[in-house]
Design a protein that fits this description.
The protein has about 120 residues and is of the alpha+beta class. It has helices spanning about 5-25, 60-65, 75-90, 105-120, and strands spanning about 30-35, 40-45, 50-55, 95-100. Helix content is about 45%, strand content about 20%. The relative contact order is 0.19.
């Protein structure tokens, strides 16, 4: 088995373990993070109704007007804060942080820090 296949398999296992734990234990909406090489996306999802309550992305015009690049920690922190403000406006103040199959490090940690500054607790 090649090294890349082993790394992908461990990422899938980690993502399954994180999501399964959140869905099993928490009744709060979850703050889900997806990061690509050059952008970052955040959604607040209510699993009971299957609806997205709020979202933010580094591709939005409101974000792009002030910032050039969405793939760094500064952008991730701003996106976390923007998502938190939209969630608070929708009536959500407590969430479960779903980092997916990413380690809690770098841009993912910056999203969490921005969301806390924006008024969410987790």
């Amino acid at each position: 088995m090649s090294r890349q296949k082993i790394l992908n398999a461990s990422r899938k296992r980690r993502g399954f373990r994180v999501r399964n734990h959140i869905k099993r234990v928490s009744t709060r909406p979850r703050l889900s993070v997806f990061r690509s090489r050059s952008n970052i996306y955040v959604q607040i999802i209510d699993d009971e109704s299957g609806k997205t309550l709020a979202s933010a992305s580094s591709l939005e015009k409101a974000f792009k007007s002030d910032n050039k690049y969405g793939g760094n920690k500064d952008a991730a922190k701003l996106i976390g804060k923007l998502a938190a403000e939209r969630a608070v406006a929708a009536g959500v103040t407590e969430v479960a942080f779903d980092r997916g199959d990413y380690k809690y490090h770098g841009r993912v940690a910056a999203v969490a820090e921005g969301a806390r500054e924006g008024g969410l607790t987790f």
